[in-house]
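Data follows
____________
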Amino acid sequence: MSDNHLAFTLHNGPLVPQLEQLLRSRITESTWAPSERIPSEAALAVELGVGRSSIREAVRLLAREGLLDVRHGVGTFVAATPAVEPAVEFTALLRRSRILEVFEVRRALEVEAARLAAERAHIGDLVELERRLALRHSRFKGEIDHFVDADLDFHTEVVRLSGNAVLLSLFESVRPLLRETLVEMTARVDTVPDTSHAHDQLLDALRNADPDAAVTATRANIDTIVSRLRALDT
């Protein structure tokens, strides 16, 4: 086993970014040569002492950057001409721009939906929203994809409570892209911003039929993440 393998030690924080960095170093330092087939997910999971799902996510991120070539039914290979570091940085910049665009669309949809929900929803309509919020909070420190799904379920219910079928249709159409973006972003950052308080404030605003407070809470939730993304580009 190479020194590169022996150097890997898990640290506190999200696992996927650590695995991504390790696999990236094996490519950029030529531990794995261009066009070489890398070990299977199962083999890497055993070697590194992690779950296969974490390996799979790290491989997916590197494949999106053009460093790995996933051939279903065959295996995963190092790209014939792996991207050099400046290209990797440019790809990351493009990804952040894409994420920002998704959040701009999300902000426009959800701010209006929250305002309408505060005006139209009744106390009896909020039981499902309360359930979904409790589930979101319980999954905050759990598996990334489970947390993101619970979070989006909560926001989908807010949009449904707006009573606007067009808004709901638009949100549901963008939800798959939003989910992909959130899972990827959450896997990459060292710490996930905790916007639980803003979610609680949104629920309180709907209980109080306060449109202004609902808009403020929605903006606080989304703008916290947007601000962090914009800071990465400075």
Summary: The chain has ten helices and two strands. The longest strand covers residues 68-71. The two ends are 40 Å apart (CA to CA).
